[in-house]
User: Fold this.
Amino acid sequence: MEATLGLEIIEVVEQAAIASARWMGKGDKNTADQVAVEAMRKRMNQIHMRGRIVIGEGERDEAPMLYIGEEVGICTREDAKDYCNPDELLEIDIAVDPCEGTNLCAYGQPGSMAVLAISEKGGLFNAPDFYMNKLAAPPAAKGKVDIRKSATENLKILSECLDRSIDELVVVVMKRDRHDELIKEIREAGARVRLITDGDVSAAISCGFAGTNIHALMGIGAAPEGVISAAAMRCLGGHFQGQLVSDPAVVKTKEWANKTKEENVARLKEMNITDPDKVYECEELASGQTVLFAACGITSGTLMEGVRFFHGGSRTQSLVISSQSKTARFVDTIHLNEAPKYIQLK
Ligand code: VTB
Assistant:
């Protein structure tokens, strides 16, 4: 899978990031997202693969492109057997977030990126459009911290695993009313909190790398993006657990103001999720034999530089992680549109 798709998926996230970056700082998050979706879909449809979107922009009736179930890639055509080799005809599942952190992009804030994960058919959890409580931590703490434990307990464990005192730990939490108690608890335990307004995928994956000065991600974000984070963390050997949240009183969001917990549990049942409180390990969220992850910075963040435009081109930085070759590659690319006056080196 990596051999046939490795380079192509870099271009997919690069194209989405470049399109979105043109709308960076313009205060229009919908367009920043829309152009990323269009660019991602266009580039995907040039690839010799038989892909199906399992996590995307929404259900078919609400999203015209990259909706759940949409087939992408040249080898989805009926006569594909004539020009696609057997490898390329294998069905693959794709989870996408063409502009993760749309607000960050729209307001020129750090940490937005174009991101996707790929696995063979059935290899990615088809997460419902729900909220998810998440815990991410470095590889040294994998399986030792646990989302069922309190933040205070987890910080003690983390401090032992990482051989640093609790006050040397930094925990990323999204700034939301629902996290007020959590933030208080983390601070009382002695750790430091890095509050972000959006973009918990970048924060989760940053836990997989030493040197980012991010030691954990805690709190509730969106479930579909949880699967994408899990895909990366599974390849990196990091810790990631997710638990769907069905109680609107816990989530405290306007979007769920008219929903009840019972309704949400019933919705989950319809999707064959009978245990609404199940804790998913990253190996369950991204269970495929082969998992590929790719991201490209739109605005600069902890892991990647954002898109930089220059006369006649642009420069991007991406990250591709593969369970197959056990690699995390940072890829710097110069994109030339027309005869450039100069080629930017950094
Ligand atoms: C967003 C976004 C995150 O979760 O906040 C979203 O920034 C859901 O939270 O990166 P709200 O509905 O409270 O905004 C993420 O998309 C991903 O988990």
